[in-house]
Amino acid sequence: LHFVDTKNKIKFFNNSMLGQLSGKLNLESKLRKAISNKEFKLHYQPQLECKTNKVVGVEALIRCQKFRECGISPEEFISLAEETGMILELGEWIIDAALKQLKIWHNKGYNNLLISINIAPQQFQQDDFALKIEQLLQKHQIEAKYLELEITERTVIKDVNYTVEVLNELKKLGVLVSIDDFGTGYSSLEYLNRFALDKLKIDKSFVHNNNNLKIVKTIIVMGKNLGLEVVAEGVETQQELEFLINNNCNYYQGYYFSKPKKAVEVEKYFEK
Ligand code: C2E
Ligand code: MG
Ligand code: MG
Ligand code: MG
């Protein structure tokens, strides 16, 4: 089997490559359909202050029934959305839906609740990203200080000068920014000084692994020295939590307290 590509080069395909390609095309059209039919929902995972064990906020995490049935994880369909550019439309829906839910909670009296939203590199890189955020906050009548954007090292290293600019705009707006999965990427530590950041989220792979506890300790101390708050993700055991408390980590989230849940289910953890 072969085909001729746009540069008139003959390429050969074997059956397995063809299978992969058609699987991907199929998935891509499923994703496109899911986006236009709005077949997504958000789940929310509580974020707690280590010192008081109080819920201070939630992280919004996308879910899709259709993909779950085919065994496709959020990580997988998000990465396909990134590859195909569909993340821009999907990402905007996510921010809008999350802020809408946050407003409902604020109106119910959970006034100080914060929401964290994952932002893909292309979303962050689009023109007027900060303005888009400002407009969505305006639309939902939410103060900027209740919104936290989670970006990854992948996002910040794309164009460092541009990142500095956007982060400064976001800072001026008053939204919080955290580096998600901290420690797993390839960004330079020097950037932590240049970027207007608020928090570091220690990747769950460090939190879980006993061999990595020195790394966790070090990230907490470093974060504090740089004036950043530190969040540990993926906390699954009492022992992990105690370690974090003893080492003055600011916040944690993980299955130990709660998995990500539907809005109505997560509400029971909130305090007025
Ligand atoms: P992330 O932002 O680092 O989110 C943390 C992931 O760890 C979530 O997986 C969460 O369900 C899972 N998790 C939380 N606590 C624990 C724990 O105690 N143990 C373990 N093993 N896992 C835990 P999820 O929801 O499958 O999301 C995976 C990734 O997909 C996210 O990683 C994020 O990179 C991406 N993602 C999810 N939702 C969105 C979204 O709305 N927008 C964007 N751009 N990316 C998203
Ligand atoms: Mg996250
Ligand atoms: Mg993470
Ligand atoms: Mg992740």
From TrEMBL:
Record domain EAL: where: 24-272
Record's signal peptide: none
Cellular localisation: Cell membrane
The name this protein goes by in its record: Diguanylate cyclase (GGDEF)-like protein
Species per Swiss-Prot/TrEMBL record: Halanaerobium saccharolyticum subsp. saccharolyticum DSM 6643
Lineage, highest ranks first: Bacteria, Bacillati, Bacillota, Clostridia, Halanaerobiales
First-to-last residue of the parent protein present: 436 to 707 of 707
